[in-house]
Design a protein that fits this description.
With 350 residues, the chain is α/β, with parallel strands linked by helices. The protein is built from 11 helices and 10 strands. Strand 4, helix 2 and strand 5 form a beta-alpha-beta unit.
Length: 350
């Protein structure tokens, strides 16, 4: 498994990162451990989790995923060989994260989050600590395709980026966090964080974790240049579009045990014209004689601006296919065919 530098840091992360958000709800602890064992056997050294996980978020399950990872690292005695990433929630009305009040990216909230995460993960530091989503009122993912989706008002108690970055600086200086990153962030947000750090406010962001897949290439419009010129690594999440790019939901199918069947959380990939676009890509994969999941995963891994692709699976068989994408030979013909479809369908699932 190829390793790549994370931003301007000294961390080397595997080309594939193992996502973990199903562990503790859709997957048992034993299944999570088996997935980590298999991924690390294939050369993966990078795990991504969050205080919010597992998905879908609920008060009674929140934090279980971090506990599962902590138990695995303790049992394997391999903490020093794991590049461990976690996240603190941004602004949310969900009150279970902070003991009965809404959460923000303010000092008390971030300190509360890091202490709980470290305890669950059974470690004294996190390699990459990410802001899961902004404190600002922005559409989910922070990269809508229409300006009209932006809110007309700003939160009266919005936490400034400088204030949040100063808190992260405290965590780095305390040795609880090695490096910091963003997630679901916009071009303006990334540049503002960089601007503040260049002023000396806090640590420089090393990475950006945003959705990127065949039906959501919004990263390419502005963020690709920002991240390239500023040495901010893209950690691409949802390469299979929550499973829609595996073909299992084609023609309205809802297989038993699948995430959308269980939880009805596929709205991002059920927008107008999304069904037609997803089917076009899945059929394109089949026209090349390739399983759609493998094709979609290989597309993401072969974009030049992707440092690591965050894969997720609920079975070991699914994980094997996701890992195989790192060895798949992506051709110029495939890229041209994908771009031809994209020219027609655009980004229906930002």
């Amino acid at each position: 498994m190829q390793l790549r530098a994370l931003g301007r840091t000294d961390l080397l992360v595997s080309r594939i990162c193992l996502g973990t958000m199903t562990w503790g709800q859709q997957n048992t602890e034993a299944e999570g451990h088996a997935q980590m064992d298999l991924a690390f056997e294939h050369g993966v050294n990078f795990l991504d989790t969050a205080e919010l996980y597992p998905i879908p978020p609920k008060a009674e399950t929140q934090g279980r995923t971090e506990q599962i990872i902590g138990n695995w690292m303790k049992a394997r005695g391999n903490r020093s060989r794991v590049v461990l990433a976690s996240k603190v929630v941004g602004r949310t009305a969900s009150e279970w994260f902070r003991g009965g009040r809404p959460a923000r990216l303010a000092r008390a909230d971030i300190f509360d989050a890091i202490e709980k995460s470290l305890r669950r993960l059974q470690t004294d530091y996190i390699d990459l600590y990410q802001l899961h989503f902004p404190d600002r009122l922005v559409p989910w993912g922070a990269n809508p395709t229409r300006v009209g989706e932006w809110p007309a008002e700003r939160a009266g108690d919005e936490t400034s980026i400088a204030e949040t970055l100063a808190v992260l600086d405290e965590l780095v200086k305390a040795g609880k966090v090695r490096h910091v990153g963003l997630s679901n962030e916009s071009s303006w947000g990334v540049m503002r964080f960089l601007f503040e750090s260049e002023k000396g406010v806090g640590p420089r962001v090393a990475s950006l974790q945003n959705a990127f897949n065949l039906v959501n290439r919004t990263f390419e419009v502005n963020l690709a240049e920002v991240c390239d010129r500023e040495d901010v690594s893209l950690l691409a999440y949802s390469p299979l579009a929550q499973g829609y790019l595996t073909g299992k939901y084609d023609h309205g199918a809802r297989p038993a045990g699948a995430r959308t069947t269980l939880f009805n959380r596929g709205q991002r990939y059920e927008k107008p014209h999304a069904t037609e676009a997803i089917l076009a890509y899945n059929e394109l994969a089949r026209s090349f004689g390739v399983e759609p999941a493998l094709f979609a995963g290989a597309f993401v891994l072969n974009r030049p601006f992707v440092t690591s692709s965050i894969i997720g699976a609920t079975t070991l068989e699914q994980l094997e296919v996701a890992l195989a994408a790192s060895e798949f030979r992506w051709t110029a013909e495939m890229q041209a065919a994908v771009d031809a479809v994209h020219q027609r369908v655009g980004n229906p699932c930002p």
